[in-house]
Design goal:
Layout (H helix, E strand, L loop, with lengths): L1 H14 L12 H72 L4 H18 L10 H19 L3 H19 L16 E5 L2 E6 L8 E5 L6 E5 L14 E8 L2 E10 L2 E9 L23 E8 L5 E7 L8 E6 L14 E4 L10 E9 L2 E8 L8 E7 L6 E2 L14 E10 L5 E8 L10 E11 L2 E4 L5
Antiparallel strand pairs: 1-2, 2-3, 3-4, 5-6, 6-7, 8-9, 9-10, 10-11, 12-13, 13-14, 14-15, 16-17, 17-18, 18-19
Helix pairs in contact: 2-3, 2-4, 3-4, 4-5
């Protein structure tokens, strides 16, 4: 800066008619000292400028790193949403394929849209807690399943999902207490058969009724479709909320399915908990069309060996949503003659939002608890409550003012719960939940498993197992 001012002054002096006389030439020693001082000043200035520049660059790098980390987290959530979108597309392709409505052009468009979403989702993942190859493996498996379905090979699609299970689990669950299965698995029901756990879920990419297997409640293997063939009267692609129970050597799978212009319940049987289950009925078990249809079946076997079915009607003709119970006839495929459905529960608390559904009856040492879901299943307001009952056919009451499980850090809108006990006697609850940043369709509802503990005589959901 000093040099610049001096040169400008010299230029002005050269144009002046009254330029002062130049000083006498300096001695060589003085000139050297001036040059040294000048070099020291310039060096100091350079060091100062370098230091300021380096500090600024460091701040910029830190800012960019923070931005990349934030982008990485968003990309992770985008990837999870992308997986849900692909699974939703798979379900659509399955329905179109069966109904004969889809053209090759339409399928290609759906495939391109889903894969474009996934391609966009991987941006910035190099700073994630898992490698790019991990998410690539996950997305490759999901894309492969979509392509297999498009080609008409459901068996290959299941294999593609199985091959990507471990990688997708890392993407969707990076910490303890997260989902135990990386794909869409709504309305879970879990049974223990000789120390092996079988989980059944609403229809999704892997079939009409999904089925998983585990020996430790943490690592789950996809077995495929528990109900690969539907009865002639049942439409394809709309089977949900399975409830499974073993009676003697036979396993019964109750499920919801549309029929007769409304929503109904049917039942299939198998000699193995892994299926395949077979429904040879000529029509549904129960429908209750005047009450808006019957869904969410859950079987219960009392200590005397009597089978009961609990379910929900949607509500219609001035009647609210209601949870019902009724004895089932010997053989498990017809309602007991001479009995009528008994109303167990209706919405009476604000948190339920005029909805009660997804019932599950559980007996703990003679105390009957009815677990149920309330509110809009598509939102974070969905939650899980519990009522007390005098028996499997009621009457029931609500001793608690609110739900026992609602939206928290690792999931939103939990519901559709089932309760089971390990061979060691520890009760667990399994339920589905949305990812907190991906609530509502077409995002996946993931499977969670937590221990059940008691407080003041009532079951509550315990902390996640490590």
């Amino acid at each position: 800066m000093t040099l610049t001012v001096t040169r400008r002054q010299q230029a002005n002096d050269s144009r002046s008619p009254h330029r002062p006389a130049l000083p006498p030439p300096s001695q060589p020693g003085q000139a050297r000292r001036r040059r040294v001082r000048l070099l020291l000043v310039l060096a100091s200035a350079a060091l100062l400028i370098f230091g300021l520049t380096d500090t600024l660059l460091t701040q910029v790098r830190l800012h960019h790193a923070q931005v990349r980390l934030s982008d990485t987290r968003r990309s992770e959530l985008d990837a999870i949403r992308g997986i849900g979108l692909v699974e939703s597309t798979i379900r659509g392709l399955l329905a179109d394929e069966t109904a004969g409505l889809g053209t090759v052009s339409q399928l290609d468009t759906q495939l391109a849209s889903a894969t474009a979403q996934l391609d966009h989702s991987v941006a910035g993942l190099n700073l994630a807690n898992f490698s790019v190859s991990t998410i690539d493996t996950c997305l490759h498996g999901v894309r492969g399943a979509l392509s297999d379905i498009q080609a008409g090979s459901r068996t290959a699609a299941v294999g593609a999902l199985q091959s990507a299970d471990d990688s997708c689990q890392l993407v969707t669950s990076a910490s303890s207490g997260g989902p135990v299965y990386p794909y869409d698995f709504p309305d879970p029901d879990i049974v223990d058969v000789g120390g092996t756990y079988y989980a059944y879920g609403t229809n999704s990419a892997s079939g009409n009724i999904q089925i998983l297997e585990s020996s430790d409640l943490t690592q789950w293997t996809l077995l495929g479709d528990a109900l690969p063939r539907l009865p002639a009267w049942a439409p394809f692609g709309a089977t949900w909320a399975p409830g499974v129970i073993q009676i003697g050597a036979l396993f019964y799978l109750y499920y919801a399915v549309p029929a007769e212009g409304t929503e109904c319940i049917s039942v299939a049987t198998s000699l193995s908990p892994a299926g395949p289950f077979d429904d040879r009925s000529g029509g549904p078990l129960i429908c209750q069309a005047s009450l808006g249809g019957s869904i969410d079946p859950s079987p219960y076997l009392d200590s005397a060996g009597h089978l009961y079915l609990t379910w929900k009607t949607n509500g219609a003709n001035g009647q609210p949503a209601t949870i019902w119970a009724q004895p089932v006839a010997a053989g498990g495929t017809a309602m007991a003659g001479g009995s009528a459905p008994v109303a167990l529960l209706r919405p009476t608390q604000a948190w339920e939002g005029s909805v009660v559904e997804g019932p599950f009856m559980w007996n703990d040492g003679g105390s009957y608890f009815l677990f149920y879901s309330g509110n809009d299943w598509r939102t974070a307001s969905y939650a899980e409550g519990v009522a007390t009952c005098q028996g499997p056919a009621g009457p029931c009451a609500k001793p608690l003012p609110g739900p026992i499980l609602g939206t928290e850090g690792q999931f939103s809108g939990p519901g559709g719960a089932t309760v089971f006990t390990t061979p060691a006697g520890q009760p667990f609850i399994a339920f589905h939940g949305w990812q907190p940043a991906a609530v509502g369709p077409p995002n996946p509802r993931l499977l969670f498993v937590r221990p059940v503990v008691f407080e003041n005589g009532y079951p509550v959901v315990g902390a996640p197992s490590s």
